[in-house]
Amino acid sequence: MYDYDGEFRFVSKYKLNVCALPKSMSTVLTGVMCLLYDPEEFLKEGRTINTDNWDIRFCKKKNEASSIEQIKNRNDTGYKTDSEKWKHVLIVREPMERFISGFLDRCVLHEFWREKAFLCFGCKTNLTCLLENLDKTMSDPKLRIHSVDTYHFFPQNWWCQMGINIFDKFTILKVSRENTNEFWQKFYSILRNQSVPNELVELVDKQVHSGETSHTTFHQKDLRKKIFEELQEPYHMNLFIKAFYYDYVLFGFPLPNVRYSLAGSKTCQNTSLSK
User: Fold this and answer.
1) Which end of the chain is more exposed for a tag (fewer CB within 10 A), N or C?
2) Are strands 8-11 and 64-65 parallel, antiparallel or unpaired?
3) HSE on the CB side for 207, CA within 13 Å?
4) Measured distance CA(135)–CA(258) in Å, rounded
5) What b/e string do you get for 153-182 counting C-beta neighbours within 10 Å, with b at 16 or more?
6) pTM attached to this predicted model
7) Domain residues of the chain, as ranges?
8) CA distance 44 to 273
């Protein structure tokens, strides 16, 4: 684990802090926490959870911090005197689902590399290239700098200061496409335990189930399946497991069914995906 800073979103009134991990429902969670932070102004401005996109988010720099220490040092949080009453929540996503979503969103659908060639690790839609360059970046301390690509593709256990906080501060909730409803019910239970009024919880529930964010890849079933199948190639799977093994182990997700040696040699052709 690395202790990279986190995307913390907090609401002092309810002593609630959520780390919005990249590509783990971060846009939705940022919107949820903004609504809880200032519901009157959020609604007055015509904002909704699913349309409050990153670049124009209403609560930018208002209820955001890169570390728990920053929350503690703010004069308006009351954290220093009531730290034991705060609830710190970490939402983690099934690692392969998260990787596929990130690759599909950034490299295949939106093709951000057309504007800046270095994005998607300079690989365009080439999955082999991206996995290899991700491995090189993770393995070399000189390359482990914050960038748009590392933000979206680095393992979840490298974020949110987990090396410091994972075992003694965070309540961890797991989310995947198969358990979305179960996840939200657990999250709402936390909100109620933190004294969030039921009518506000119901408003959150209504909004998160009304529409989708601009980054969703939910309806791209054919492309998601194609990327999933490419990941099953032994060489691809070896690189994927090497990168995300500890996300599976630390967060209790079942490992993919690996039928070959993790030390396997390169056995597949470079593969690119197109829409």
Assistant:
1) C
2) antiparallel
3) 26
4) 19
5) bbbbbbbbbbeebbeebbeebbbbeeeeee
6) 0.86
7) 8-251
8) 43
